[in-house]
Design a protein that fits this description.
The complex is a heterotetramer, with 2 copies of chain A (88 residues) and 2 copies of chain B (146 residues). By secondary structure, chain A is of the alpha+beta class. Chain A has 2 helices and 7 strands. In chain A, 28% of the residues are buried. The chains are: A alpha+beta (88), B alpha+beta (146). Chains B and C meet through helix 1, strand 2 and helix 3 of B and helix 1, strand 2 and helix 3 of C.
Chain lengths: 88, 146, 146, 88
């Protein structure tokens, strides 16, 4: 894939439950260099102060649907990092 | 019908909502709040969700079941503070055929547990608090009188 | 609890009777009276039983399920004149484990159909009356508009 | 098995649903020559006027439990001839 030249995209990252507690926040708005994958966004969060407590491969969702770490992010996407599910 | 509710679940009302004269079988599942978890006595607990995704994922699961088996499915998960014995989730599957009703009901509860973004925060009798993580091995309960 | 009832079945009450703080899952099955049978519109119907044997056989089935899976089972079959949409049978299985609850519930309804001496007499919209015989091939319903 | 000499046993036979309708009665008390099996009792009923409408091998119960046609009957047993079950 040809790396794009210079652009970034805005992505909102949501944190829930234990992850929100660990990082002391429930969301952050980031600008990611394109092309940006879910894994890139996770790496961004883990590089923040305290972010290393997140697992390297958390369960993730993009725009309200489960997404693999390899999924490509687009401008305006809502990425959610989901702690282990406990419904039911 | 929304798939998330902050009010107590009423199984009778959910069953009535899918009762039709051409449906001979209704299978249901209720998940109840238990008083123990991992050997610890639970005093209080609260469910929270990534609500828009939980609604969307629940709707997808119901649609999958209804496409796979000839049935109508109702799924509601409760959020907020629950008490011991309260129903946390209700699945109702109605069909002309009991096989379809059972299979759809089972499918939905398994998929809910695996896919719907809901979390449970438990407060234990000793005052400690924890997020429930079904992927962690649960410590065996302490032996009685040991 | 008797396994035969001449009164309408109350699923909520049956569920409440097996709800306990250490039981996380309750699977239920309701068999409802349908408005058609073998392509004929059903106007009225009545269940009858060889009552002492139906009670005894139901108790044996429940005991078998409770011996095979860690659960408590409630089984009630209604007798007498029923209306379309009424619940004819209710099975409730409560367990700490949803797998046990589902398996026990399914086992009980299958065994009830195979073993409990209950008969159904249907009156059809055209005035004819027949004893339902699940072992006979059922005629397909007439084609709509044919 | 050595056939017994002369004795009979009293057995109550119950008929239900379609069978009761076909024979116009819901029970009959019979005396069967010993040894008597469920099949012997069924043959007895089928030999009555109108009894031939019963199947040769109906579902049967003895004393409130399912029983095979080969089961041996004892004095005072309650034998039930069960039309196809339709509960559930």
């Amino acid at each position: 894939m040809t790396p794009p030249t210079g652009g970034t995209i805005p992505v909102r990252i949501l944190l829930f439950a234990r992850y929100a507690e660990l990082l002391g926040r429930d969301h952050l708005d980031v600008a990611l260099a394109v092309p940006a994958s879910v894994a890139d966004a996770v790496a961004h969060v883990r590089a923040l102060p305290g972010g290393e407590v997140l697992p390297a491969r958390p369960l993730c969702a993009v725009n309200h649907a489960h997404a693999p770490l390899e999924a490509v992010l687009h401008a305006g996407d809502e990425l959610a990092l989901l702690p282990p599910l406990a419904g039911g | 019908m929304p798939h998330l509710s902050h009010e107590p679940l009423d199984l009778g009302q959910l069953v009535a909502s899918v009762t039709r004269a051409d449906r001979g079988g209704i299978a249901t599942f209720l998940g109840l709040v238990r008083d123990h978890h991992g050997g610890r006595a639970v005093a209080a607990l609260e469910y929270s969700a990534y609500e828009p995704m939980a609604e969307a994922e629940s709707a997808r699961i119901v649609a999958e079941a209804e496409a796979r088996w000839p049935c109508e499915v109702v799924l509601v998960h409760r959020l907020g503070a629950l008490r011991i014995g309260d129903a946390a989730v209700a699945v109702v599957a109605a069909s002309a055929h009991r096989d379809a009703a059972f299979l759809a009901c089972r499918y939905v509860i398994e998929e809910v547990k695996a896919r719907v973004p809901i979390w449970k925060r438990e407060t234990y009798a000793d005052g400690t608090v924890d997020w429930v993580d079904p992927t962690r091995a649960v410590a065996p309960p302490p032996l009685q009188g040991a």
